[in-house]
Each structure stands twice: as C-alpha cells, then as structure tokens.
Write a structure and sequence with these properties.
The chain is an alpha+beta fold. About 35% of the residues lie in helices and about 35% in strands. It has 11 helices and 23 strands. The structure holds the ligand C=C(O[C@@H]1C=C(C(=O)O)C=C[C@H]1O)C(=O)O and magnesium ion. InterPro entries: ADC_synthase, Chorismate_C, IsoChor_synthase, MenF.
Length: about 450
C-alpha cells in the first residue's frame, strides 16, 4: 500500500491551491495501517504543539490530530455552540480540498467547559468555554482503512510541511511501541473531602425540601508524580483497560485533558441520531456470583432507577424535539465496565432535522446524568455548592465534519495532566434518598479507571 512522500503531498497541495485560490487547502490520501497511539506519540517527536485523540466505543472511528491549522475559540457563555457552528461553516467556504477518492474530509475536534458561568480557576486557564480545532495532520481510521488528511494555509505551509515530512519519514520506518513507563506517585490528595460530603448533605436537604429532584456533585483528586506524566502511556493503559469506552485526549502546550468515557452524548449520521442514558452505578463484584448479585441489585434499586429515569425523561424530550421518531426501550439494561456497572438505556432518533450535531449538543448539555433536574436549578446548585472547577470535565468532547455530522461523548472518567501533576474527577447523581457516604464511595469507584491507568492502586 501507499507510502506517502512529502514532495508528492506538497505538489498536490500546490495544485489544489492554484486551482481554487482559497486561504486554506486540504489533501487526503490512503496510507498504511498505523497504530493510532503510536501516531499520537510521533506528534511529539515532530514538535507538534497540539495533539488530539478520539476513538469511539466500538473502536469504529479513530481520529488522531497533530498540530492546529485553524482554531475556533470562544469565551461567549450563551451562544458558544452556535458561534462554533457558524465559524466552522464560514471556514469551510475558505477551504479547497481534494479527498483523492477517499471518504475523508477535514474535521473539527474539541470540547467545551461544563458551565461557562462558573469562574475559571488557574488550572483550566488553557481551556476556554469552547475550543474546536482543525488539526494540521489528521489520521482517520474507519472501516479498516487508514487515511491521512493534511490541512494547511495556502500561503504559508512550509513550516508545517517540514514537520509533516519528518512524520512521514518516521512512519515509513518500523513501528516501535513507545516504551515510556508509568510515573511514580509521590502524593495523593483528595481535595476538600469533608467539604464535599457536606455539600452532598446540603443538596440532599434541598432536594427533600422540594427545590429540585436531582443534582450531580463532583469532586477531584490531585496526584503528584516523580516525573512528567506522558499522555501516551495513559492512552495506552486506557485503551487496554477500558475497551468499551470513548478514548479522548486534547493536548496543547504540554497540558493534556484525557479520559475514557463510557457515555455518549450524541451522534448524528445523516438524519439518524443516537444517544444513551447512563446513570445509576454499583462497583463490580470480586467473584462472578457477587458481580451478578450486585448487578441484579442495581436493576431493582429504586434510588438508582430514579436517578436513571430523570436522564431517560430528559433525553427522550430533547431527542423528540429534533427527531420525528424516538426509539427507547421501556427499562434499562446493565452496562458492565472494568471497574463499575451502570444502568444503561440506548436511544435512537429517526428523521432528525437538526442542522448539525452541535445544535443537538446544545439542547442536551448537560443531561441530568451530569447536571440534574430541573436543569437550570440543578446547574445553579452545582455552581454554588460544589467545591470544584469542573473545567472540561463532564462536558461535551468530540468532533464534527463538513456536513454537520459527528459524535460527542461526555468527558467523564477523565483527568487533566500538567507536567508532574494530575487532577482527576468523579461525580455522582444525588437524589432525595441518597446517602452521602455511599455517594462518596461511588465517586471513589469512578476515580478508579484513571487511577488504574496511572498505575496507582488505593486499597483503603
Ligand atoms: C458523573 C459521573 O458519572 C455519571 C453519574 C452516574 C451515577 O451517578 O450513577 C453514572 C454515570 C455517569 O453519567 C462520573 O463518572 O464522574
Ligand atoms: Mg449514581
């Protein structure tokens, strides 16, 4: 199969540029199969300051982006989804591309903050309320095919081409799995544990007084390591340990937001649209029998079923508002992941008339799985009560293509990595009959996937 050469791509780009006279040009071509995490790792060797990773639950679509040719950022609070959508459409008009017989087109990849009205703290300074980017180099793996897409400004692409040339040379050599090892933990700290438990108690009282029905409260753990944490190692571990999750990474200037989330927010594919309701949790059992018993308990537990039902109700309505027909099973199933089991209800929307996946994201975020019910009151409670700046945690992360199709996951089971420091996050749905200590335990289980990816075991 095709080995790609720098001079050929350059020639093609020049040809596209001459023909179309557009500010941006893009070329796609088939390439040899490559391990996407290895590709991500090469990004650093080639001095790309931004790296992006996305793989869906079925591993059906994998995108790895290196470098940033165009970035849409906004600190606007109310209109952020629309602003991104409008700018993306405008930008597409300035782009000439030749996809060379492949199905690939440039995509926009990125994410959003959970709550633009919550004051931002220092650690999230590099993550605006919305940031979506067009990577300079994009690897797409779909239906067993690997495609490379190069997108550059037509007037100055020499600097990018140098990096791309190096990347192509490294790709043509034998693939060596990156050998970076797991970092050594020097400090583990659960931020404001007592304050968090008090917040849960207060929220339970407020729910019992009828102020709202459900509020999701989250907390963070801070970890310090002896060495700088390499996102490549974390991705490798997550890929092995969480095979049924979305895998994502958004890295810029050495700051990396990474996670393995089981929760789809929405996928739009033409006029079909998909979502899932995920809420209600219990740990995995230590034996097969215990695991089965815990699962059966979860399927019948009224508190968890109620937590779940709020999500079903809202997603059903949101999908109903953009689709002609919504298919949704009457009762939840069990979703068993490596460390946790959840109540799970898949949702399918037919004849979707939304303009783009982003306009559905706008309708859906935050669902009661991450925010609460009623939505506005719950968000206000989180803003005022939760001792945490969520940043991009629990918010939409994903991609969109030229036609407005795309997929977003909810960025849970995630962490922010800055040099030798990591912040990892977990939350839980608080309802009237929640017990604060059980909720605390539940968040502990939800921290496990990231801890385990970092090689940290905590048995207390
Ligand atoms: C908020 C998180 O998870 C969410 C809360 C759940 C619950 O409370 O049962 C279950 C799945 C997620 O929708 C998290 O993992 O941080
Ligand atoms: Mg729960």
């Amino acid at each position: 199969m095709a080995i790609l050469y720098q001079h050929e791509i350059e020639e093609q780009l020049r040809f596209i540029g001459k023909k179309a006279n557009c500010p941006f040009i893009s070329w796609s071509g088939e390439m040899d199969d490559v391990d996407p995490v290895y590709f991500f790792a090469l990004g650093q060797a080639c001095s790309f300051r931004e790296r992006f990773y996305w793989s869906d639950r079925a591993n059906g679509t994998v995108y790895v982006g290196l470098g940033c040719t165009y970035s849409i950022e906004t600190e606007e609070k109310e209109q952020r989804f629309r602003i991104v959508e409008t700018k993306w459409k405008k930008w597409m008009e300035q782009l000439a591309f030749d996809h060379h017989g492949t199905a690939a087109t440039p995509i926009l990849f990125g994410g959003f903050s959970f709550d633009p009205f919550k004051p931002r703290t220092e650690k999230w300074r590099a993550f605006p309320h919305a940031k979506m980017v067009v990577p300079t180099v994009l690897l797409s793996l779909k239906n067993g095919k690997a495609t490379l897409t190069v997108t550059v400004p037509s007037m100055r692409y020499e600097e990018s081409m140098e990096k791309i040339g190096l990347l192509l040379r490294l790709l043509s050599q034998e693939q060596k799995q990156p050998t970076a090892s797991l970092p050594t933990l020097v400090k583990y700290e659960e931020a404001q544990k007592d304050e968090w438990i008090h917040a849960v108690e207060k929220t339970i009282r407020n729910i019992r007084e009828g102020k709202f029905d459900k509020v999701v409260l989250a907390r963070e753990a801070r970890l310090s390591f002896a060495d700088v944490i390499d996102p490549v190692v974390v991705l490798q571990q997550l890929r092995e340990q969480q095979p049924f999750s979305y895998l994502f990474a958004f890295e810029q200037d050495g700051q990396c937001f990474i996670g393995a989330s089981p929760e789809q927010l929405v996928k739009k594919e033409g006029d079909a649209c998909y979502s899932i309701c995920l809420a209600g949790s219990i740990r995995r059992g230590k034996t097969l029998q215990e695991d089965k018993q815990l699962g059966q308990w979860l399927m019948r537990d009224e508190k968890n079923l109620r937590e779940h039902q709020f999500v079903v109700q809202m997603i059903k309505e949101a999908m109903g508002s953009v689709c002609k027909r919504v298919q949704i099973p009457a009762s939840p199933q069990l979703l068993k992941l490596q460390h946790i089991q959840h109540l799970y209800t898949p949702v399918i929307g037919e004849k979707c008339h939304a303009a783009s996946v982003l306009s559905i994201v706008e309708q859906m975020h935050p669902t009661p799985a991450l925010g609460g019910t009623p939505r506005e009151k719950a968000i206000k409670e989180i803003r005022e009560t939760e001792p945490l700046d969520r940043g991009w945690y629990a918010a939409p992360i994903g991609w969109m293509d030229a036609e407005g199709n795309g997929e977003f996951a909810v960025a849970i089971r995630s962490g922010l990595f800055q040099g030798k420091e990591a912040f990892i996050f977990a939350g839980c749905g608080v309802v009237g009959d929640s017990d604060p200590m059980s909720e605390y335990e539940e968040t502990k289980v939800k921290l496990t996937p990231m801890l385990s990816a970092l090689g940290v075991e905590r048995n207390e």
